[in-house]
Amino acid sequence: MLDKLKAHFGDIFIVGHDHITYDDNFYWFKTPDNVTIGFPIDLMHEKELDLLNIFLTPLPKQKEFSPRTPEEEYWSSILFKGSEVKPERHNGETFRFVYFQLKDELQEREAFTEAIRNMFPSKTIILWENESSGVVIDLDPKMTDTIENLFESIVDNIISDFFLEIVMYIGISNVTIAEANTRYYWEKSNFQTIKQIDKKKVYKGAEVLPFLLIGETRPDTLVKMKEQTLNQVIEDPDLIQTIKVYLDCNMNVSLAAKKLYLHRNTLQYRVDKFIEKTGVDIRHFRSAVSIYLSLLIEKNIH
């Protein structure tokens, strides 16, 4: 890994040791070989950082962003350091991790943290990883899920109140304390990957898995999949858009027609037309999944 990094970045990175690790002048990462390396902040661009975040594990800065309460220290040790957990302390509870990343410099960190905390309906733990990103530990996901479009509202409020661009990744809400560390790093890696594929303000973990599959598949295979399923309709953008909305509405003709401002019969005609041209009956779940993946491929390699 170090040889590959050196081939790409040259000699600008250093291998960390106890006396310099977490120097504020460097971005720090852990390699898959468990080696700590640092890249000078003033020489790194955003695209290079995004690339490093995909293949390496970013390390939090220990000084400015260190935990301030025993509860934060407990969770920090589990997520960031992989410390031993205490299952008896949680009595079978499950959690969710909500990751956020800011695109602008934050001036009011305390006010921002408090604002995030107050927008959740139940107790949360907020840990900062560095000056622009962190994780919210949602201690009661079931309560959080009772509020419709909560995360979209949080993003909109942050943008309007703090004049900041923020992106959030909503993890899957079934994390046990025993798998907290591995889930944290897996979802964080997914967050870094999906940002390169699909541009949104809010990503939901359960919905991004198809994108991750696309990201791991050879480009020539993706092209072949798209050609085999969509070639007969690819020149009809109205039909393509109709089918995208139809699938997004869980194949509900009435709901899709409403979203597209179409008569129900018109939408049904377009679905039938798509089936006739492609030979794929998207009224059935398994066939619909295949077309959904093909449409994602079309969007991302078009």
UniProtKB/TrEMBL annotation:
UniProt xrefs under InterPro entries:
CdaR-like_regulators, Homeodomain-like_sf, PucR_C-HTH_dom, PucR_C-HTH_sf
- Record-linked SUPFAM superfamilies: Homeodomain-like
Write the protein's name.
Helix-turn-helix domain-containing protein
Q: Which residues form the PucR C-terminal helix-turn-helix domain?
A: 239-297
Q: Name one Pfam family in it.
A: HTH_30
Q: Return the Gene3D superfamilies for the record.
A: PucR C-terminal helix-turn-helix domain
Q: Report the superkingdom from the record.
A: Bacteria
Q: Which organism is it from?
A: Halalkalibacter alkaliphilus
Alphabetical list of PANTHER family matching this protein? CARBOHYDRATE DIACID REGULATOR (PTHR33744:SF15)
